[in-house]
Design goal:
Elements (H helix, E strand, L loop, with lengths): L15 H4 L1 H8 L4 E10 L9 E10 L25 E8 L7 H10 L3 E3 L3 H9 L3 E11 L10 H8 L2 H18 L15 H12 L1
Parallel strand pairs: 1-5, 2-3, 3-4
Antiparallel strand pairs: 1-4, 2-5
Helix pairs in contact: 2-4
Length: 209
Amino acid sequence: MLVFQGRIHYYEGYDWERATATVQLAYDLGARSLLLTNAAGAIHESLVPGDLMVIRDHITLLGPEDWKSPRPQPVYDIQPFTNSGLAQGTYAALTGPSYETPAEIRALKIMGVDVVGMSTAREAERAKALGMKVFAVSCVTNKAAGISTDRLDHREVQQVAGRIEIVEKFANILDELFVNLKGNPLNPTATPFTVDLERQILKDADHDC
């Protein structure tokens, strides 16, 4: 099992090949399932900060042309979460790093989007193309612009994501996922080991500059 701390974002100046490099690396090292997580803003009225939502499909809005014909991409496996009691919904991926405007949020709501963020979609698509099982869970850290009268504050995002009850809730989800996958080894020939992946990826990125 490989665990990544953080991720490389497109808005940090990397191309999509580099931003999704961890997926390819995980696959090359033997992983055949990928669980993605993210912090997201809630668009659906029933979602509040602190909620966890299983991503059922996503819409990528990473360029001007994408807004003309948005299509949900059902690349995720949601079966293991059927009895979890968690909401399931559609995630919209925008480039960031700025929060969306109220007008953009209204447009996303019309598209049927439930939460919005700045990652995950391209990683999921790359994993799916490699033949991996893809699971994804969003942590709702704030109400999207225009949904709440409160001003958006990045400190709120960090505070909500770090709340102990959310960490414990997510740990329970991991337990459930592992139970569902138990007895179905994804790559029984893989050799377990530990490697500082984040340092290696950033080192490789520096070589590309």
